[in-house]
Amino acid sequence: MNQQPAPANSVSRILTASLIGTTIEFFDFYIYATAAVLVFPKLFFRAADPTSATLESLATFALAFFARPLGAAIFGHFGDRKGRKATLVAALMTMGPSTVAIGLLPGYATIGIWAPILLALFRFGQGLGLGGEWGGAVLLATENAPPNKKAWYGMFPQLGAPIGFLLSSGIFFILSKTMSESAFIGYGWRIPFIASALLVWLGLYIRLKITETPEFMKIIDKNERSAVPFADVFVKHTMAITLGTVITITTFLLFYLMTVFTLSWGTSALHYTKSSFLIIQMISMLFFGLGIPLSAVVADKYGRNKMLVVATIGIMVFGLMFAPLFSTGSLAVTAIFLSLGMFLMGLTYGPIGTALAGIFPASVRYTGASLAFTIAGILGASLTPYLATMLAHNYGLAYVGYYLTGVAALTLIALIGARTLMTQNAD
């Protein structure tokens, strides 16, 4: 076979393509999370009381996390068989239309029971797309990175999380300040969902210009592609998928406690206004964004495992401070609480993608890293807002913190067990 080699990706093109894709995907995901708390209970569900409607809305929020492993398996299969580039484009085009469809969906008053059914269906589509997006974006970055800068390159797709959140929260904040409550509920919330179509086209344009990663081209040249990557991950790499999943659970749990749960609890039980709470959440996102590159620098210098161990111990301690900091009734103290939690989130989230990529060989890396990440999403995030709300209502906020500390202890044990495994396929 006499093929001309594809031109190498420039560093700026690699990092831009990995960053913009995850920014778009997380923007889409977060506007749903915000709307699930502020809008959907009133619009898409018929419930006897506001608490029941909120819980039903949060249940549809959880649905996407169960779709993500399916997306990881499907897109991971093609990512490991056909290539990273085409699969990343397909993942983007799965989530984007699902998000726009939510923005066009009539409410319960118009189409009755079909409103929550279709909402759940489109939410499933969001999860399916994100299940294939994240792993590919991380591999696009890390498989093009120099050996001593893998965590630094790998943190660029991770930056999509705080940027996407800031964009989504910023839009909802502007809408809430410029519209009446009735106008916001009536049509204003739909604007970011429909406008996401423009972001999807931008991401598509950039990703179509990248070339395949060098490591995947080596797999093709050596004829080392796995016939069934999903099966190989669980049969040949059982320890990697198990430890990788447990290592990642705390990352998800902390994030959705600090975003969805705190927004719901803060604007209901603690009676903060929607706009003031969104402001302090956006401030906390800056600390999230700060923690990501800081953790990458430390991880490249001292090791990913050591960085994640330090971050996890910090999260365990933070869990014990959860209730004292979040129940003061002071907006300033709550801002400190959110910023501290999100800074710890940045420290654990920054190197997690590079760490997961490092425990799987290149032939099943897309599938393995994506599945570990998305299964952890089910265990650590899917029901977190629901369970945390139930714990807080029935036992008090302290038990939400105990929940976080207990799960972080399990992650710490997994990190200790994965010290050797985490670097065996890193270079």
Automatic annotation (TrEMBL):
The protein depicted here goes by the name: Metabolite-proton symporter
SUPFAM superfamilies for the chain: MFS general substrate transporter (SSF103473)
**Residue ranges of domain Major facilitator superfamily (MFS) profile in the record:** 14-426
Q: Does the keyword Transmembrane helix apply?
A: yes
GO CC terms of this entry: plasma membrane
PROSITE patterns hit by this protein = MFS
List the transmembrane segments.
Answer: 57-79, 99-122, 159-175, 187-208, 240-265, 277-299, 308-326, 332-357, 369-388, 400-422
**A molecular-function term among this protein's GO annotations:** transmembrane transporter activity
Task: Give the way it sits in the membrane.
Answer: Multi-pass membrane protein
The record's annotation in CDD domains points to: MFS_ShiA_like
Which keywords fit this entry according to its UniProt record?
A: Cell membrane, Membrane, Transmembrane, Transmembrane helix, Transport
InterPro entries, alphabetized: MFS_dom, MFS_sugar_transport-like, MFS_trans_sf
User: Which compartments does it reside in?
Assistant: Cell membrane
Gene3D superfamilies documented for this protein? MFS general substrate transporter like domains (1.20.1250.20)
Q: Give yes or no: UniProt keyword Transmembrane helix.
A: yes
**Predominant cellular place of this UniProt entry's protein:** membrane
User: What lineage is on file?
Assistant: Bacteria, Pseudomonadati, Bacteroidota, Sphingobacteriia, Sphingobacteriales
Its domain of life?
Answer: Bacteria
